[in-house]
User: Which sequence fits this backbone?
């Protein structure tokens, strides 16, 4: 079950809710970050490791003279934070294994774009943390 910031009472069912459900349903991800999976922004007081994800772009998958096919292609970035470099990488690896090539529900497929590590420590909430980033394309039915 996703954390309270991603519960259905916070916003209607959406691709963001689907992403939270996929990650919260993966035992390897949950073992590392528990319920600390949030769209858009880390909450004040977040304990690390944690995962934050955000939409980078969203566009119709195909448009014809008759209109949109109803398929959306969305580019999503996952930021995997931890107080150690190895921990951030482990979280990133778990996220990648959980979502890449996923199909189910309204999701037609999740495909890799990029996987990179931040070159230095970031300071978040007065803590030095490392960040492993993953970017994917998510193709889904609107």
Assistant:
């Amino acid at each position: 079950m996703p954390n309270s910031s991603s519960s259905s009472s916070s916003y209607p069912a959406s691709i963001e809710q689907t992403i939270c459900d996929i990650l919260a349903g993966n035992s390897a991800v949950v073992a590392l970050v528990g319920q600390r999976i949030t769209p858009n922004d880390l909450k004040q007081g977040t304990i690390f490791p944690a995962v934050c994800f955000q939409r980078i772009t969203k566009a119709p998958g195909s448009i014809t003279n008759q209109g949109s096919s109803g398929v959306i292609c969305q580019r999503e970035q996952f930021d995997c934070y931890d107080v150690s470099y190895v921990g951030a990488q482990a979280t990133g690896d778990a996220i990648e294994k959980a979502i890449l090539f996923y199909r189910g529900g309204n999701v037609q497929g999740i495909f890799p774009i990029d996987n990179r590590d931040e070159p230095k420590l970031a300071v978040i909430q007065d803590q030095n943390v490392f960040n492993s980033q993953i970017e994917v394309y998510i193709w889904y039915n609107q």
Summary: Strands lie at 37-39, 50-60, 63-64, 67-68, 71-82, 107-117, 122-124, 127-141.
